[in-house]
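Lab manual, section 2.4: Encoding a predicted structure.

Procedure: take the sequence of the chain (443 residues), apply the prediction step described in section 2.3, and record the output as structure tokens. A sample record is shown.
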Amino acid sequence: MSFSPVNKNIGRFRWRICAVLFLATTINYIDRNVFSFTMLDPVFRHQMLGIPLSQPLTDADMAMFREKMSFLDSIFKYCYAFGFLLAGYMIDRIGVRRGYTVSIGGWSLAAVLHGLVHSVSGMAWARGLLGVGEAGNFPAAIKTVSEWFPRKERSFATGIFNAGANVGIIITALCVPFIISHLGWRASFIVTGAIGVFVLFWWLAVYRTPEQHPKLSPEELAFIRQDGPPEVEKVVKWRELVKYRATWAFAIPKFMTDSIWWFYLTWLPTFFNSNEAFSTKLDLKQIGIPFLVIYLVSDGGSIFFGWLATKFIGLGWSVNKARKVTMLICALCVVPIVFASMTSSINLAIALIALATAAHQGWSANLFTTVSDQFPRRAVGSVVGIGGLMGGLGGALLAAKVGFIINTGGYVPLFAIAATAYLLALLVMQLLSPRLETVKLPD
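Recorded output:
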């Protein structure tokens, strides 16, 4: 079984563009996820609480720390949410090349600033700026895929670049604890943030639109444009897009399921470090192992479920049936995660979480692709921006309460929410867009 739909006689330069998107997404997730591992560092905890290092932290101190981290996490997500909307608007108007450049540069600078602050209020500013900058990644990447790939390859291409999220988390889990242990928590932000500069230069060197790219063969350009020539890039206003049920068929499932992914990213290190149900717990030096397993499996899920929808379409299924059957499989794979919060076995918890995160990435790849399935290219960035706003708001609302929920009820309620969210979200999508029909926008 081959996972690649590449035809060697056509050319494969479009996959180089996909490789840049993969690397940018990897760096994007490294920068946003450093914070969740820094939360385990005793020096960071003391400094954020304003308590001398010589003074041990009490249970009350740790409860307060979790509340403060929930606040910081929600700040990032609120800014990410509204930044997503602004990013989609910006990218549809100034183009992918310039828009992605602004985004990568902005989030890299904000990531470095994390290492220079000394208080919760300073960290809140850094988290907010990071959220605004990082919001440009997915609107830019999804629009790039819509420009560079025919419809039948888009979910596979999206699955590949979306797998960069998992690679970023794996690199963070393996490298950031080492950096913190040897250089301190500040260095972890500064070193990882500086890497974005290299991605920025690669993006500027490689990206052009297909029609303008000197290295793209006529045969590959014809293959990319098999669904029709590029349309006139007329701006579509948000107030027009929110009238369409297809917009909400994307945005509401984002609201319902992005919060689950955000919870994984921020709180899984703390879960493995402090869950009362576990017979053994993991410290900062041990935490990289479960994340290596979880997000390698997640990478496979992103690529596999992106490929699976493409395979179904190749078998003659409609785009609607292929996407939704794949997303149903993903939703069912998440259900068992509720038991991860109840078991005393870390190994079983890792396996259940790995299955759920792989399913989420497959779900996300296909959900993103429904935008380019239904909307013309000129509206893709803005629709993804609206969905990102809703996803970020869902994540921020849950993030603001995570510390309180853990302090009062443990992790079971949070994993129960995760187990049901995807099935409910798919039901909403089906009700709003039963056929994934192409939206005809006014001229």
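Check your result against the sample. The radius of gyration is 21 Å.
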